[in-house]
Amino acid sequence: MSLRNPYGHKSVFEDKNRTQNPTKKKKRARDTKGTLLNIWKLIDEKRIQLIVVILMIICSSILSLVGPFLIGHIIDTKIIPKELNGLPQYIILLAIVYIMLSVTSYIGSFMMVSIAQRTVYLLRNQLFKHFQTLPVAYYDQKQHGELMSRMQNDIENVSQVLNSSFIQFTSSVVTLIGTLSIMLYLSPLLTLLTVIIIPIMFISLRWITARTSVLYALRQKQFGIMNGYIEEIVNGQTVVKAFSQEKYVIDTFNEKAKDVREYSFWSITFGGLIPKVMNYLNNLSFAIVAGIGGILALNQTAGVTVGVIVIFAEYARQFTRPLSDLANQFNTVLSAIAGAERVFDIMDEPSEKDDKEAQDYQNINGEIEFEHVEFKYDPNQKVPTIKDLSFKINNGESVALVGATGAGKTTIVQLILHYYEVNKGRILIDGIPINKITRESLRSSIGVVLQDSYLFDGTIKDNIMYGTPNATYEEVVEAAKKANAHDFIEALENGYDTVLKGESGSLSQGEKQLISIARCLLQDPKILLLDEATSSIDTVTEIKIQEALDTLMQGRTSVIIAHRLNTVKKADLVFVLSHGELIESGSQDALIEQQGIYYHMLNTNDDEQIKELN
């Protein structure tokens, strides 16, 4: 395997700038100090519990230092002189020390796990909550699988560090200070020989981590890309099979998996050097202490005895072991920091916020007006998606939007929902600029029925109540009856308590749309936005859907992306769109009389032509 960047011919280390491009990433996402500070803010509420954990760690670390000192003392005062008087008491004391060591270690670990899990719980909840506040435009630019990776994998890496690395770090610091103090007390000369290896350790560690930090960041990014692709293919599996693209998606996945393998291999390989180097230096230190200490003990110089050598060798091991432990944890910490940065990168994204002057309007009547609206999804777009669009829909009127794919029909619906801000012009609801109405009050007055009706995992009753959680069972049934959904729901084994799983289980597209219409009826909105289903629906179900839509549209301002001529005929107005412009508008009779574009659409191939243009 070559140390190559899968995006080109540079070394993976040279690819560092690609992940730190200031046009792609915020500065804070590369700020390790800022990331750790954000995590600390989540922990801070458990400050007292954390202090107890630190005290337990300090106690266990001190107790771990007492044991070797007692053993050395026993060797010099009891074993070598063959003085057995008082030996049992020393052994009992040593046993008590190690029992207390185990108890304090367990208490510290138990409480730290509690703190860690609460912190991760808060982090995951904050991230999910922030997901709900992000604008639709953000999701347009992201793969869902990548966002799932940040919610799951990246946060789990943080959890792993909090569960183990914090205790390891604190314990190592206390142990280092304690062992160094005792070693200096026992033999300054041997201590000097032991600490000589520290600069070598840090130089080695810095060289290795300079490479692993880049590799771990790239690995996390590639995991997100791979997970995004998996989620996309799982959701589109029927399309993959319909077009016999199994081999293509497998090959594409293999390429993405190779990228993950490449970065994982090199990050783990370089990270694995750390414990190997540390173990070698530890053994070297032990050999120096044993060799020099043995010579000093034989010559009875510098106050070194056999007991001192035994104690010092153990403390030398305890001195270098924390350095090894910290080095071994370093890979986990790097991975967690990379994951936490990706999480906080999302949380730094601006939320969808209402205008400061926006107010709640609970009694919206349903009048919609566009005044010279221009809109681009991307500011760099040369040609706007919507161009100088003006129209007015009176309260209670129904409008059918027709036009070819890309004409701007769906965009109009999304702008009415205030998913995006317009670039020019303005949109008014009941004469009020849309940005002066809070999104919550606006959207609570709008009912949406999409052609691909999305139903959540749960019962049919729960799905109908989705927008109206306080509705009674009787109101749910009444809404279903009006939507012509009651009969087929009752025919199911568990009726309204039937649990829907995995893209709504065995329900047909038509049945799903009837449930969606029932959900909208229960909400009782003032404005209805409808995207007719284009999929094949049997004649009986289609008649039921049309009857349900007629009921739904009564007395409501309705904007329909029309795919069927029958729907267009029933609309009060028809808007003919082309490339974001309104090229014809009026009643169907008026447009036919004009003998313009709409007239030629009808005469070309009636219903099939409208489907083709949409």
From TrEMBL:
Q: Name one Pfam family in it.
A: ABC_membrane
| Residue ranges occupied by any ABC transporter domain in the UniProt entry | 368-604
Answer whether the UniProt record assigns the keyword Transcription to this protein: no
Supply the CDD domains for this chain.
Answer: ABC_6TM_Tm288_like (cd18547), ABCC_Glucan_exporter_like (cd03254)
Sorted alphabetically, which InterPro entries does this protein's record hold?
AAA+_ATPase, ABC1_TM_dom, ABC1_TM_sf, ABC_transporter-like_ATP-bd, ABC_transporter-like_CS, P-loop_NTPase, Type_1_exporter
Which species expresses this protein natively? Answer: Mammaliicoccus sciuri
Q: Where are its TM segments located?
A: 50-71, 91-116, 166-186, 192-209, 287-313
Membrane-related topology note: Multi-pass membrane protein
Q: Which PROSITE patterns match?
A: ABC_TM1F, ABC_TRANSPORTER_1, ABC_TRANSPORTER_2
Q: Which residues form the ABC transmembrane type-1 domain?
A: 51-335
Q: Which UniProt keywords apply?
A: ATP-binding, Cell membrane, Membrane, Nucleotide-binding, Transmembrane, Transmembrane helix, Transport
Purpose of the protein: May be involved in multidrug export. Transmembrane domains (TMD) form a pore in the cell membrane and the ATP-binding domain (NBD) is responsible for energy generation.
GO CC annotations on file: plasma membrane
What is this protein called in UniProt? ABC transporter ATP-binding protein
Which Gene Ontology molecular function entries are recorded, alphabetically? ABC-type oligopeptide transporter activity; ATP binding; ATP hydrolysis activity
Where is it located? Cell membrane
